[in-house]
Amino acid sequence: MAAVENRTLSQQVYEHMRAEILAGRYRPAAELNEVAVAEEMGVSRGPVREAFGRLRAEGLIEIRPHRGAVVSELSKMEFLDAYQMREVLEAFAMGLAVPKLSSSVKKELIAACESMDEAADQGDIVAFFYANDRFHRTLVYAADNIHLTRFYDNLTAQMGRYRHVSAELRGDLKMSITEHRQILDAILAGDVGEATELARAHVQVPQRVIAEISDERWAALRGVEFGE
Fold this sequence. Notes:
Layout (H helix, E strand, L loop, with lengths): L1 H21 L8 E2 L1 H8 L3 H13 L3 E4 L3 E4 L4 H22 L5 H20 L2 H18 L3 H14 L3 H8 L2 H16 L3 H21 L2 H11 L3
Antiparallel strand pairs: 1-3, 2-3
Helix pairs in contact: 1-3, 2-3, 4-6, 4-7, 4-10, 5-6, 5-9, 8-11, 9-10
């Protein structure tokens, strides 16, 4: 019974820490002290250590010599690498998902586009990226490939902390919505090739901007994101 309880505590610590990191309350490069976290959550260090192991496996924290656990951060090139990997994963998902999309999934994609439109009109970046994530994640999940889903979730969890950076890189949110609707039209028409090419082109937009901006500009964008 003790082992079961310990796993439950570890899960609770993991979920709490993960939520704090993704919400930006633990900023990139912030040190995470095992003892402090254990005291804060009223648990022993064992569950905290296990939770840290899971967070490290997801790439959300790093274990550094003499510093212990720190929240991971993405450099400009790492962010570009993440976008490139996301392009590959979403293109792969499109090929699996489009031929077998149910009517309920199609309705979910349409609703996500409408939510993006409303959020853009209101200038609500958080709501926009929530709807944006809903659109892309719905497609990836519809591919029904457990390894794809797991890898995609880990990748986008890291990228999601930089939503304001992504908004700045993309620029015009209305253009992004236009691109989503073009992708959606191809999906609803059952045109896998067109949907895949449009999806690739959509994710390539911020890639081109990242490749061109200076390290100083990246540092400034990152500073705005995390209030530094």
